Amino acid sequence: MSSSEKDESVSVRRIDGRLLSVRELKDASGKIIGTVTKQLKVEFKMDDVFQLVVGALVMAIPIAYAEEVWVLGETLTAGRIFLVSAVSVVTLAVFVWSLFYDRHIGEYKADFAKRVMVAYLVTLGIALGVLLLIDKAPIDDLSLAMRRAVLVALPAAFAAAAVDYIK
Fold this sequence. Notes:
- This protein is α+β, with helices and mostly antiparallel strands and 167 residues long.
- Helix content is 61%, strand content 16%.
- Helix 3 (78-101) packs parallel to helix 5 (142-166).
C-alpha cells in the first residue's frame, strides 16, 4: 500500500446514547488520520413514533380530501382492499429496510419488524382520523371507513417513513 492509499475500518459504537457507524481512516502506517460518523437509525424509539405521525399527516391530509379515494373506497372489493394493504406493508418493509437497516438487518430484526408494523398502524390510524374529521369515514359503516383509510394509508406510510428517516 502506497502512502497515498488509506486503510478504512468501520465499527458500530454507542456514543452519547446514540448508535453510530464509525469509520476510521488510517494512513499506511496505521495511524488514524480521520473519522467519519453516521447515525444508525436501527433502534425503534418513542420519538420515532412522533416522527411517523408527522409524516403520515403530511400525506394523509391532502389524499383524504380527494374524491377519488372516497369513490374507490366504495367500489373496491374487500379482496382488493386487502391486496392494497398487503402491497403497502410489503413495499413499506422494503422502503424501511433500504433506508434504515440495509447492512444491519441481522442484528435488528425485531426493531425492523416493529418499525414496519408501527409505521403502518400509525399511518392507518392517522388516515382514519383525518377521514373521520372530514366526515368521510362513517362510523355506522366501518367497512367503508376502513377501505377508505387503507387507500389513504398507502402513500401516507411512505411519507411517514421518509420523515422518520430525515429526522
